[in-house]
Design goal:
heterodimer; A: Cytochrome C Oxidase, Chain A; two-stranded antiparallel sheet; globular; B: alpha+beta; 6-stranded mixed β-sheet; 5-stranded mixed β-sheet
Chain lengths: ~600, ~400
Amino acid sequence: MAAEAAHDHGHHHKESFITKYIFSQDHKMIGKQFLVTAIVMAVVAVLLSVLFRIQLGWPGESNSALSFFLGDTWAPDGVLNRGMYLGLVTIHGTIMVFFVLTGGLSGTFSNLLIPLQVGARDMASGLLNMISYWLFFLSSVLMLYSLFVETGPAGGGWTIYPPLSIYEQATPSSGLGMTLWLTSMTIFIASSLLGSLNYIVTVLNLRTKGMKMTRMPLTIWAFFITAVIGVLSFPVLVSAVVLMLMDRTMGTSFYVNDTIVGSEILEQSGGSPILFEHLFWFLGHPEVYIVLLPALGLTSEIVSTNSRKPIFGYKAMILSILAIAFLSFIVWGHHMFITGMNPFLGGVFVFTTLLIAIPSAVKVFNYLTTLWKGNIKYTPAMLFSVGLVSSFITGGITGVILADSALDIAVHDTYFVVAHFHVVMGLSAIFGMFAGVYHWFPKMYGRMMNSKLGMVHFWITLVTAYGVFFPMHFVGIGGAPRRYYDYSVYGTFDSNQYEMMLDLNQVISIFAIIGALAQVIFIFNFFYSIRRGQVAPQNPWKGNTLEWTTPVEHVHGNWPGEIPTVHRWPYDYSKPGLEDDYCPQTVPLMEGEEEH
Amino acid sequence: MKLIVLVVIVLAVIAVAQLMRVYDLSAKLKGHKEEDINLKTNNINAGLMLVFLAVFFGSLFYMLFKYGNGMLPEAASEHGEDVDWLFNMNWVIVFTVYFSTNALLFIFAYKYAYHPDRKAYYFPHDNKLELIWTVVPAVALAFIIIFGLLTWNKITGAPSDDAVVVEIYAKQFDFTARYAGDDNKLGYADYKLINGTNPLGVVTENNIATRLDEIDQLIADNQNTLNGLDSGTTILSAANAVKYQAEMEKMGRIKERIVVMQESLTEEVYEMSNDDYTAKSALYLIKDQEYQFIFRSQDVIHSAYFPHFRAQMNCVPGMRTKLKFKPIFTTAEMKEKTGNPDFEYILLCNKICGASHSQMNMPVIVGTAEEFEAWKADPANAVTQIVGGNEEVEEDPEAVAEL
């Protein structure tokens, strides 16, 4: 209905500044709003990481950057406060996982691409979509605000395990900071659910004529399954968060049993902190794929387009996405091998977790085969896609170690884990997001980003990213626990290890600072190109998917006339018998031509 | 100062934007299109792929070479040897996949860079290939899973009968060890009994009596404050009165729970704690002796991480978790093996537990049985006997006041 209405009035009515740029219901504008908000949040999160990397690289040394950003309260004499260190770590993780890689990634690209690539006038519900963005905005503001409260932001780690996160007596940051964190996350989840429901409905109901499920681009498959995972898992986190709020405010004991906090004896009895861990990771693990799948989807499209080859094993790719999504729901216990969980149950989780490696391996091999005998054009988007495949491999295989409970007890919660998930989920998702922005920028803003700057951005980012996370594996196997303010304890019992940790932490911090500065190139390129970039042609990358058949200037309803009809799958690149090396989905099959 | 920094940044952005403008105009004059990557640029990127591959692999070898001695020394526990063996088996697979797939990725990326004379090979799918790379990882994983679970079952299996029971009690921000003594049975413990003289809440007749007295005193103090009979000179506000009243009622309920518990306790239970003793200065273990550790926590989740013994277990408030291992090298032997005279074993907290998380740890010493007896007897190590029975105990007024 919304789509019909948009069609009727689409080209004429004048929009005011407010309806066009602020309370817009147009999916393209909402996508851009998500992207810009996510960029702002990412800048904050990266800055926070630089601040705590300064402490880790040069522990206890006075630093003017710390006093500049944190002032005397949190960095007296330029030395980072211990509580604030944990606050920085916590908010860095929260913002990156939820606000940048969930809200930012899905919010931007699902919104932008789902209607454009399935051939719809807009999302199923423009209003819900708009509300979804504004809830996201509100939750972002609350999360940032929590950095400025007197007792500091939430500082219990992004996993907010109780009882630490419940009682102010346990740690001051569990006061107002944690309240804001929980409120912000509840609103964020509402936003995410509204978005996901919209994506699911749009993909199922608003596909254009001829757009069978088996003709959908892999981007859409990835967004669709991501939304399904989100709808099934995020509510569990909401319930976990609400129970925690009750423990905090009403004295219930869902997560508390026989505990003394600070010097206060609590009456709460019968609950279990482990219950929270189960609920948290029931979302937490699918969340990894909520972050990862959209990036893989974007990359599938970009790799295929720029290799001028069909993606290898289209159906296997879809099956892999489905298998990963299904398995992601039955592996959460691998985060909890050492919580005293029944070892037999641990064994089951080892089994299911390692199974995920199979569909993941299939995806990697399919990417490699897509590159094989391709004719690869290195646009910045393609460069980042290659980066993604590398980080997906490099980070993925260390997961084999962590999934093995017998090994996990030796490296659990060390920097090895930090390295693993930053490479496999952080880098892959960020690379996918960068690739997506470079590739679809022309569609978003009708202009081109500067490709030379994009290349410089990629190479510095790739090298510094590995420079940060590769040595972390060594620090972790050396036995360095994560979330430590410094490693001075090692100085007293093992000088060999202490020296390595000091050395490598400094290297990591230097790479982190260079890497963070390199992102200025991207941000400059992005905002400069919005205003001044070269005007984009309709189909700059010679792609097959439907979004490249829309006019460069955005119109409400996406296509000025009829919605095009789809006749083929989106991957007819370099198909023998066709003249061009691409063939848009709207081109009817030639006589005698097999579909694929 | 902040203002100057801001001004400099703004000016720098404007300057770069102007430079970009010049670049754009000259590109326009030359008819350069941003979406067309010219052959030379494309080849540079392709070449860089190979360079990166070399640097990537090279950096790994460099780090292995340079920081090999910063890795954890060989496992100092019996199961740790199995873990290390399993690690090595997994490393073989991990490195094989890492090198081969990354190499294929970057070599393909280099080799198949765009060339105007070539057309990409249309190759949408191949069932046989796809089957191969589903089955091969599946087989490799089957190995990993089977060996992993075998080791896991061994690690988590029931301890042998002669395993010595030791409790590790965690609170912000230290650990305490409680040895079960001659009967090898830990006395019961309850958080309601925790006070200055009984930091672990161990159940003894004496501890219960002391704690009940203490609670009575606390209630009486609160009542006095409410009645205006304490030495204070401030006027009690309504809010404070409610607070004192609530505190009083709460302690009353806790007292009731203690009394109910007390009724169910028998002489045998009291006896179990009689020979327990605690140590805070270090956890002393005997070489080749299997230990069954019981973990508890007072306040938040902690994690007892023994890096050298390849062991770790969370300490969860309101729960008892377990872990067993057998140390196989003494500290002295380990000093020799690592060639590091500073070497000590350690127990680290490895679950975020508050601002001083990184300072929460406990030295671990492994020695012989004789050395252990000597260590126990040394007053410097402050090994404390749990006081059972109805003996009089000296109270530490400061610690009592805390609760």
